[in-house]
Structures are given as C-alpha cells and as structure tokens.
Design goal:
The protein has 310 residues and is an alpha/beta fold. The protein has ten helices and 14 strands.
Length: 310
C-alpha cells in the first residue's frame, strides 16, 4: 500500500469510526484503527495522527476538551455527543488518577519480576517485597535497583525497573504498561537510553505496542525490545477493566487482568533475552556515545536516525 493509499484509508476509517462511536479519545481511535481489524487495514498512529490533524484543520473533525482531548465529527449534534461524552468520561477519569496509574505500572513490573524469578536465568536487582499480600488495590512495596554501580551513576537519581547482572555484563529493563505506541522519539525511550548509557547497561524495553520503526532503530543501536500486545490491569480493578474493554465504550480490547507472566513473557525472559544479549552489547558499545548525546538532547532525533540507520 502506497503512502497516499494509507492516508486515504486512514481518513475513511477515522471518519467511519467517529461516526459509529459519536465521540472518542485518541487512545480509542488508535485501538479501533491501529490495533484491530484486518492486518491490511491497520493504520499505525504515525499515519493516523497527521490525517486527524488535517481533518481538524478542514473543520471536519472537532475537539472537545474534558479532562483529556476527545474528537467528534463536526456535524454530530450536541444532543448526541454530550451524553456519550459524560458516559465515557466517567470511565476515563479513574484511569488517569495517579492512585490507579501507579498500580497499573506495577502490574507489568510484577509480571516481569515473577518471570525473572521463574526462569532463573539472571541475577538481578529490583524486587517487590510484599507480594504475599493478595490485595492489589494499593501499591506493593517496591525496592528499586540502585542508581550507582561500579562508580557509574544515573543522573537525577532516576531508577531502572530492574537491573540484570551477568557474569561480565549488565542490562537495564524498563516496563511501560501504557496505551501509547512507543516511537523512538518518545520521552520513555530517551530516558531508557539516559539511564542505561550512564551505567553502561544494555537497554531492554518491554511495552504494550512498539511499532516497526522503533524495533528497527533500537535493534540497530543495541537495545532489546519486547511487545506484550496487552495492557495489564490490577485484579482489584476488574469492574473498571470491563468497562474500559467494552467495544461500545472505550474499546481497549487488549486489557488483561492480574500480574502473572504469560507464556510470551516467560519465553522472552528465559530464552530470547539471554540469546540476543551478547550481540546487542556489541551494537550498544558502538552507538552508546550517540545514544547518550540523543538522551541529553545534544543531538536531534533526525541526527540520531541518520547516524544509526545509515
């Protein structure tokens, strides 16, 4: 499919989805258009976003601000979209509260922690100390990895989620249990580079959705990525998860409950990660100075891409 055809398809699908939903936020649109449907009709967010912005400039799509940004077709009457917005906002608002997002992030971190324990392939730093308590309605107690190792220190006392210790190497893991697709220019990736370059640890990113360009860039520079294809919710938020997952509401169809590692995560931690680490280290060593400059905003994303991909 050519770029023009992709833009045309994105325009058609965006208008159709908004027509069927009445009003939706950006994450719902991504889920309906980028994460669902036939493979040949999935439009990645990097195509969807400029198409949506063009339709906004043409006044075919309008924004509604209500705690977050919502979108509707310009000809949808308020008598239709306002009740729908009230219904969706009542579900979205709890998802944005820090009391929830902290536990949301821990759901994936705990799954990784359990995978590291179950596979037994690595010594590692970072632990949850009270997992015997079954109720995940409050954050578990997390012991973060140190910010300094062998005289090297991560700036601003930023912590990795886990630090793997190999016989003659180390790797830093970051878990991102968020709905956004993580592109190479994302702050989350810049911070991963910042932390790992500071302590000379191979970067490892585990996230819900990672587009091909991120795979390509990070592989070329020696970073390792794993895509979970789902977003984990705490077990205690089952009712909220059901509403967020409902295809007639927010439509986040990939929500999964609990913090037990699935077969894909166990295979990544136990088999794939040990296998690819040596080659990743070689690539990381050759690009680390560039990554550090990019993480510190000394060079642009465009300059990094040109240097890494050429």
């Amino acid at each position: 499919m050519s770029p023009a055809e992709r833009r045309q398809l994105a325009t058609k699908r965006l208008q159709n989805v908004l027509g069927s939903l009445t009003i939706a936020n950006g994450r719902t649109l991504e889920n309906k258009i980028s994460d669902a449907g036939p493979l040949n009709q999935r439009i990645e967010p990097h195509v969807l976003t400029p198409v949506r912005q063009l339709l906004e400039r043409q006044r075919k799509i309008l924004r509604v601000e209500d705690h977050t940004t919502w979108y509707r077709l310009a000809d949808t009457p308020e008598s239709e979209w306002r009740p729908r917005l009230d219904e969706l906002s009542a579900i979205h608002s709890p998802l944005a509260k820090q009391s929830f997002t902290t536990r949301l992030g821990q759901s994936l971190e705990i799954a990784i922690y359990k995978a590291l324990l179950q596979t037994g392939r690595f010594e590692f730093l970072g632990a949850f100390l009270n997992l015997a308590e079954p109720d995940d309605s409050a954050p578990y107690l997390k012991e973060e990895p140190p910010t300094s190792i062998s005289g090297l220190t991560i700036p601003s006392r930023k912590h990795l989620d886990f630090l793997l210790l190999l016989q003659d190497d180390r790797a830093g893991i970051e878990a991102k249990n968020i709905r956004e697709w993580l592109y190479p220019h994302a702050l989350e990736i810049r911070e991963l580079f910042l932390k790992c370059c500071a302590i000379d640890a191979v970067p490892v990113l585990i996230a819900r959705r990672i587009p091909y360009i991120t795979f390509a860039v990070m592989n070329a520079c020696g970073a390792i990525v794993h895509q979970t294809y789902n977003q984990r919710f705490p077990q205690s938020d089952a009712a909220l998860a059901a509403k967020a997952k409902d295809k007639l509401l927010l439509g986040y169809h990939d929500i999964r409950l609990g913090n037990e590692p699935d077969a894909r995560l166990l295979k990544f931690v136990g088999e794939n990660l040990p296998k690819v680490l040596p080659a990743a280290r070689q690539r990381f060593d050759s690009t680390k100075d560039l990554l550090q400059a990019y993480a510190n905003s000394e060079i642009s994303y465009k300059r990094l891409m040109k240097s890494i991909m050429n």
